[in-house]
Amino acid sequence: MALKSLTVKLVKLLLLSAIISLGSTSILLAQADKRIQRLATLAKIWGEVKFIHPYIAYRSIDWDRALINAIPKVNAARTAEEYSEAINLMLGELKDNQTFSFVKTKISNDGKSASEPEPVKLESGILHLNVLAAAKYTAQSKENLRNFNQKFFSLYEQAKSVLIDSRTGENTDQNILYDIDYNTRNIISEILDSKITLGTIRYRLHNGYPPQDGSTSGGYYSGFTTDAPVGIGKDFAGAPKMLPMVILMDKYSALSPLYCGLQSAGKAIIVSESNDLGTEGHTLEIGEGLMVSLRTAEMVSADGAIGFMPDVLAEKGNAMPAAMKILSDDKFRKPEKKLNASSTPQISQKDNTYAEMEFPNSEYRLLALFRFWNVINYFFPYKQLTGTNWDTVLTKYIPQFEANRNVADYRLSAGKLVAEIHDSHGFFSPPRLKNPPQIFLTPTVEAYAENQTYIRGVLEKSSGFRTGDVVKEVDGIPIDKILENFSVRISASTSQSMMRQVHGYGIFRGEKDSKAVFVVKGLDGKIRKVETVRNVAANDPRFNDFKFSRAAKPVISILSSGFAYVDLDRLQPNQVDSMFKMIMKTPAVIFDMRGYPNGTAWQIAPRLSTKVQPIAALFDNPLIEGKNISDGEFSGATNFTFSQRIPKREHGEVYKGRVVMLIDETAQSQAEHTALFFEAARPDITFIGMPTAGANGDVTNLILPGNIKVSFSGHGVRHADGRQLQRLGIQPTIKVAPSIRGIIQSKDEILDAALKFLKQQH
Q1: Is 663 within 8 Å of 730 (Cβ atoms)?
Q2: Residues 300 and 202 sit within 8 Å (Cβ to Cβ)
Q3: pLDDT tens figures, 626-656
Q4: What is the value of pTM for the model shown?
């Protein structure tokens, strides 16, 4: 019995221990998740300040360093308060008292006065206007609005001075704020004795993302813009002289442009307990009961001064007495205002490449992640086509970048990150390593057709490979797994683009003289094993013998069928006129757009159509304006959109024969744009072949720490009728998939299909 009792107790203890262990593990996992989420939020705050906060445009602030210093503090934060302090460590580098993190407080009605202050009253010759009380009163009915206006102007006739209390506190009721604006603006307009210019705002603007390295045809730019100010008041002589006016403000007060204009024109004295008024900005809830206030614009007064500061900075709780003292002091003189010129010199927005950091430390690796994530978040026009909630990318990759052990790990993580955008313009270009690993290849040239990897060329006949062999596995690894391992690090818009890129990557690479065992299926249908050695250098000149080329064919020719053929991959702009002379009387022309053109579409398309400048493509790109960022958003872009038209035909006849274009996965970007031009010029065009790569839009780029250049499509481009192109490609009218047997026999099955089609039409 004693033994049984002991056994039961032991089992209970073990179960309790297991439960405690599981509980501890759960707590640790929850803490890790919270830390990662905090870093993700830090990244978003850092990114918004980088692209929106006005100070970054003209003050010398090492914003990267601010992030680097904050990351360890966020990691170490045990409480929400410590987390907020870490954020403020970063935001403190701005030296802007309107940009900060704070604990969200609940607005309580406890102790609130039973009665609201009077909207308007006259005491001792001073006309008091409380804008918040007035807005609440006039919002109740039109009759209240009429009564309020009648009372104000009646008392104004009796008053000696005016005191406007414009303090609203944290009132975010948009209807109330609208009524404050409406009431106050109308009153001021009536009592002004001259016309004045109001204050305005200046803010940062980004039309697309200017490249960090080199130039682009996209026309992307960043700027610092000032809205044109407006004027109010009377514009005639003899208006009744305006009474002396004092305006009480807090940092939440609306109508800053109006009050700034009154101050600048010498019509009012501003009193406040805050020394920075009129801040344009917004607030964000970031979880854990925390908020972040971020400046998005700056006030510019009519006299060109930057910022809006009170004439009298009152001590806390002493604003009203200070205002009353001014109105009762006949000797009070408004302090002279120091002018901050609005033409503030801007500084370069080029990022530090940290080229010396081949393998950056953990904080700088996170900087790489945060930099890329924010650029894509704000400026990638195809973000909605990534197939991923972009927010989740941050939390997914933070642990990966932190876990990097060496430069190869870092570059692999960065490559996988770039691949998340699924854009074949997502070029990943790291510099050459100081001690690069020696990579050797098998004596084969790989390609992809019929949804299979096959051997297109053999460098050494004695190797045992035969052209046309379909690869099933290598070193016991199925070919699908090999392709998957390479695909995760390649940014591709479509599956056809992915396979084109992967098979140019040397997918069977390995250490020098290492053995490789292939299982292949020959054209005879038989499975066999081929053993080889990886002893071919990546730059072996024998590979050049297998590069696809149409150089043996003329660029422009009249085929035996009587149809014209034009190779757009090789046609040069100075050959276009002679091309039209040669093909003008042919019944049809085949434009071969397999490859990349030389900017000839702008000359050719006008001569394919009798239409006058039809729309060829629709463009858009993110347009980021500081003034349009809304509360609760980390990015709130509108789009800059425009239509691109085919140029006007300046000379030459219009070709009226049938038009065919040959396409496949090698057609990308300008090649696809050429297809759009020809499609607009000749809606009856016939596309023959396979879908194109599906990546169009003028390329731009950024640089990650370690001097890694990353590119992406900066413009969104669609068909003239709005159909999607990105991630789909130009779709063939007649689909023709080249066969492995046909390719190795040097047959051009797509061209053959085009000739067959045309013969049927004529």
Answers
A1: yes
A2: yes
A3: 988 876 566 556 789 999 999 999 999 999 9
A4: 0.90
